[in-house]
Design a protein that fits this description.
231 residues, alpha+beta, binds uracil
């Protein structure tokens, strides 16, 4: 899809339309290496725009995989450090697709694609999420059965989930909904306590373990296609 140069720069939050005009007059904007002459000039997805020495690639929809570190909140703004603060490139309207608790680490998708976020987060779609969990006390067979048949927590009932132990206090849990503090509340109901939680998968998107906590990378074309595949 092509877009006007000034609109693209506004969309990416790099400069306003009047700033763009001024920079074009000063011959300070290049598109794919050629000096831009008009604000109305059309550019394509993937064009490299150099604005006074700052180079960026125009992309309408952005998909980033973040390895969320401990201690950062899954929000776009707030008094504390947010996952968006970790992204050092300008993307307008970027938001976390779903929330992880402040002390939960691992896979978090950041995007500006509202319809995709809706598809992944809608409770009706039961998108699978898989976490590695560390418990304070050993998990029993009875706990695993309770989790598999749907635990009640006060007014709430959690959908059946699958817990696959790797040893007495570690395992993977697969959920198909995303209620507030869901895993912590499930294990509380089993008189246990979650002491470590890391998300490793959402639908078929798997955390790239080469990303250190706090690092991110764009999704590959294949990952985007798989993520958008209807359920
Ligand atoms: N369940 C939790 O308890 N916390 C998370 O961050 C995600 C799922």
């Amino acid at each position: 899809m092509s877009i006007r140069l000034d609109k693209a720069l506004v969309h990416m939050g790099i400069c306003t339309r009047s700033e763009t005009k001024k920079l074009i007059r000063q011959k300070k904007i290049k598109v794919n290496g050629e000096t831009a002459l008009k604000a109305e000039q059309k550019i394509e997805e993937g064009s490299v725009i150099d604005v006074d020495g700052f180079a960026c690639v125009y992309q309408d929809l952005v998909y980033l995989m973040l390895n969320k570190p401990d201690g950062v909140i899954s929000a776009t703004e707030g008094n504390e450090e947010t996952v968006i603060d970790l992204i050092d490139m300008p993307v307008r309207d970027l938001f976390p697709v779903g929330r992880l608790d402040k002390d939960t680490t691992g896979l978090l998708l950041l995007s500006n694609d509202g319809p995709l976020a809706h598809m992944l987060l809608s409770p009706a779609h039961h998108v699978e999420k898989e976490y590695e969990v560390t418990l304070k006390k050993p998990v029993t067979e009875k706990d695993i059965e309770r989790i598999a048949s749907g635990i009640r927590d006060g007014e709430d009932t959690f959908l059946p989930a699958k817990y696959i132990p790797s040893d007495e206090t570690h395992g993977n849990i697969i959920l198909s909904e995303g209620k507030y503090h869901e895993i912590k509340r499930m294990f509380e109901q089993c008189h246990n306590e979650v002491i470590g939680l890391k998300r490793i998968r959402m639908k078929n998107l798997v955390l790239d373990e080469s990303l250190a906590p706090g690092e991110y990378r764009p999704l590959t074309e294949e990952e985007i296609t798989e993520l958008k595949r209807p359920l």
